[in-house]
Design a protein that fits this description.
It is a single chain. The protein is built from 5 helices and 8 strands. It is globular and about 65 Å long. It folds into 2 domains: about 35 residues; about 140 residues, Glutaredoxin (3-Layer(aba) Sandwich). Helix content is about 40%, strand content about 25%.
């Protein structure tokens, strides 16, 4: 009979393998091809709280600059893959009217996030968000998530998933700096 214990065991094994391949495929697709870029037109929610250093931190302090908001976590592999590129892009735009702000959701201690900041030499602050409320207010659907906000506090672009491409992020920043809020994805 085809539905005996060995058959059910093989079916479970095949289902487990299929699930692992599906998850690996999702991760690889976002890492290899970059995240999904969306054109947006909505206000940046009030993002405020304690910085990883314990000092008060608010996105409102960056009003008048183009702001790149990065939602990240130390346990997120795509976040780790993206971080060196974010550091390079932040360095390229330093002093050019662009600021970066991290939001670190759902981590109950600042020890690992602070070690991350030191390891990658992250030049911008991050809001400690252990409840995930700040990140949720952005409407993110998973990590990493990136938002490019214009000088007036309007989210113009979001990237859901790994950005991997410094060129894509730089292009969105440049478009926001110039006031061009359209975007056509590369072929």
């Amino acid at each position: 009979m085809p539905h005996g214990p060995r058959y059910r065991g093989r079916v479970r094994t095949l289902l487990a393998i299929a699930a692992c391949l599906t998850l690996a495929g999702c991760s690889s697709a976002s890492g290899a091809n970059g995240g999904l870029v969306r054109v947006e037109d909505r206000p940046l929610p009030a993002l405020e709280g304690k910085g990883l250093d314990g000092a008060p931190l608010s996105a409102a302090a960056f009003r008048g600059k183009v702001l790149v908001v990065s939602v990240w976590a130390t346990w997120c592999l795509d976040c780790e893959r993206d971080q060196p590129g974010f550091v390079r892009v932040a360095g390229r735009y330093a002093g050019k009217g662009v600021a970066f702000l991290g939001v670190n959701p759902e981590e109950t201690s600042t020890a690992q996030p602070l070690a991350w900041v030191r390891r990658y030499d992250v030049p911008y602050p991050s809001i400690e968000d252990p409840s995930g409320r700040s990140a949720a207010s952005l409407g993110y659907t998973g990590l990493p998530a990136t938002y490019v906000v214009d000088r007036d506090g309007t989210i113009r672009y979001s990237i859901v998933g790994s950005t991997t491409s410094e060129a894509t992020l730089s292009s969105l920043i440049d478009r926001t700096l110039s006031g061009d809020v359209s975007w056509t994805p590369p072929p």
